[in-house]
Give the backbone structure.
Amino acid sequence: MESRGSVPAHPVPYEGVWRFTAPALDVSVPQARHAVRDLIARQGVPVEDDVLQGLLLIVSELVTNAVRHAALLSPELAVEVAIGAEWIRVSVEDNHPYRPTALVTDYAQTGGRGLLLVREITAEAGGTCDVEHTAGGGKIIWAALPLKTQL
């Protein structure tokens, strides 16, 4: 019997890791979202629609943050999608050393809540997210979600 998080005896056909780079420009936001959506469809990943929509919003928010806040020191960003038997993980890497934190909800602001939104979507889906430093001094912001909605 397989326990949650274990490696299946036979890998499922949609498992793998895909990585692509994009310029730190506004046009990369919808391109990254569409690339991730198309990859998931092409690989036949059995992801529930609400999880997929949350994941695509997370991709948009993370790429937007890299474009808005890291482009000066990181003219290129990397998006990685890792898919396991029961989960999917997206990450965005840039070369800017600043480690962002989720801001408190301030409804008077028109922006600045992207990471807070990522954390809320991730928690609601039963997943996890974090920010890590890279060996080169940049950062990776990632979110991992279960393929099925948690009850």
